[in-house]
Amino acid sequence: MKVHQKGSGRPLLLIHGSAADHTTWTVQFAGLREDFCMLAYDRNPAPRYTVQEHADDAAEILRSEVHGTAAVVGSSFGAIVALDLGRRYPELVSHLILCEPPLAQSDYLSPVPDGFACRFDDISARDGGPAASEFFLRCVLGDDAFERMPKAYRKRSMAAHEQIRADMGALASYRVRYDALASELRAKVYLLGGERSASFYADTLEALQFAIPGSERKTLRGAGHMMQVDAHRQFAEALRAL
Questions:
Q1: Which of 12, 104, 135, 171 could pair covalently with 109 via S-S, beta carbons 3.0-4.6 A apart?
Q2: 198 half-sphere exposure, CB direction, 13 A CA radius
């Protein structure tokens, strides 16, 4: 697994979400190079790859690239990977920055809405993978944010339908176990949300804040789900404050 390293300073592992790769952190590579030694990578796209296996990969990167602990940032599905990393490998993680993980607000609820995966599969079979990706992205980001995506990035994201479906399967089988978070996490936890994001992300952040004593929550003004791009200056300020 290739690790892309930028900058110098405190170690910071960056974990991307679905329909993305390490280049989702391009703005941070440029703007935070004086503050952090940033490590980014492309998550394994294999089908039936679990959240825990993704977290194991991240742990291996930290063991091989970092002497001591690191701050870890996760975006969307990557935030779920970061959370699992922090709870199962607490000795490797000093800070967790979770950007709108698409989790259910309770362990009694499914994190994937009823019928969502079936509709994704139906669209993929009828109209092709990129069309299914567009359906996913419009649901996750919102129509306005999807339309504002740069054409090159939109095309690349729509081509990631296999990764999206693999992440969906991993998410469906993952349960947070909210009542165990307080005892398992040692890292300082920061919960970031976008002012313009869908309301269900705020509901999840509220559930996490309640479950993790001492966690801090911040809403980035004018940002949507891709807050590291939409509000990159506020995002940088939040990371520099760690």
A1: 104
A2: 16
Q: Which domains occur in the chain, in start order?
A: 3-111+175-240 (3.40.50.1820)
Q: Is 72 helix (H, G, I), strand (E, B) or coil?
A: strand
**Distance, CA of 133 to CA of 115 (rounded, Å):** 16
DSSP string covering 127-174? H-HHHHHHHHHHHHH-HHHHHHS-HHHHHHHHT-HHHHHHHHHHHHT-
Q: Block means of pLDDT (10 residues each) for the chain, length 242 residues?
A: 94 98 96 97 95 98 96 98 98 98 94 94 98 97 92 94 97 95 98 96 97 98 96 97 92
Task: Classify 5 as helix, strand or coil.
Answer: strand
Its pTM surpasses 0.70? yes
Is residue 51 within 8 A of residue 84, CB to CB? The reply is yes
